[in-house]
């Protein structure tokens, strides 16, 4: 399996398919690069080079005890792009991966970056603070950690079968295959990485990162997102970006890149070509 080794000795697994302008995908918590199947297959058949890695502690990357924070996530992404010597790359991040992309561009600069898209993404800040009164109370994320520690297998099953894909909504038609694939990806990763990752995605403030970014960024979010609530995320990020465009999807869930792949892929393609 192709891996790169970071300067602190972590093996990061990645996929690299095709040729052409590179698109780099950053996945959500607690998943792996497999969550991008619908996008990677779509874009590799349309003349793009598609790359996705498993975040440290997730999927097939090393299950280390430490470094599960946005600085390390961004630096690991930078290590992948440098190893592959990517130029004029488009970065696409879902959920936690959206935070990773924003922090990577702000921290490592735009010399290798052409554009970015963040989908159902955690910026600017998920947790409620005096400066972010619309955020979710810290207790929500403390409860996530407690449920993970008590038994993540059932916890992950419940997330996938419920709020992640909107399968708990009236009239929804849950896909058992999608639920099991989410559970499979989660259980491949390390419990410690996922436990610490909850703090990383909920308590990192990306406000200053967003202000630093000059490249065009498409901000895509469903207004029925039960994981990263719409009102305190996408519209605020789009306003903070110098060159941000907000695209709102009525009724789409957090996991829209999977359940609404046809729409999402078409809109991404139009943005890439525009």
From TrEMBL:
<dbReference type="InterPro" id="IPR029058">
    <property type="entry name" value="AB_hydrolase_fold"/>
</dbReference>
<dbReference type="InterPro" id="IPR050471">
    <property type="entry name" value="AB_hydrolase"/>
</dbReference>
<dbReference type="GO" id="GO:0016787">
    <property type="term" value="F:hydrolase activity"/>
</dbReference>
<comment type="similarity">
    <text>Belongs to the AB hydrolase superfamily. Bacterial non-heme haloperoxidase / perhydrolase family.</text>
</comment>
<feature type="domain" description="AB hydrolase-1">
    <location>
        <begin position="22"/>
        <end position="254"/>
    </location>
</feature>
<dbReference type="InterPro" id="IPR000073">
    <property type="entry name" value="AB_hydrolase_1"/>
</dbReference>
<dbReference type="Pfam" id="PF00561">
    <property type="entry name" value="Abhydrolase_1"/>
</dbReference>
<keyword id="KW-0378">Hydrolase</keyword>
<protein>
    <submittedName>
        <fullName>Alpha/beta hydrolase</fullName>
    </submittedName>
</protein>
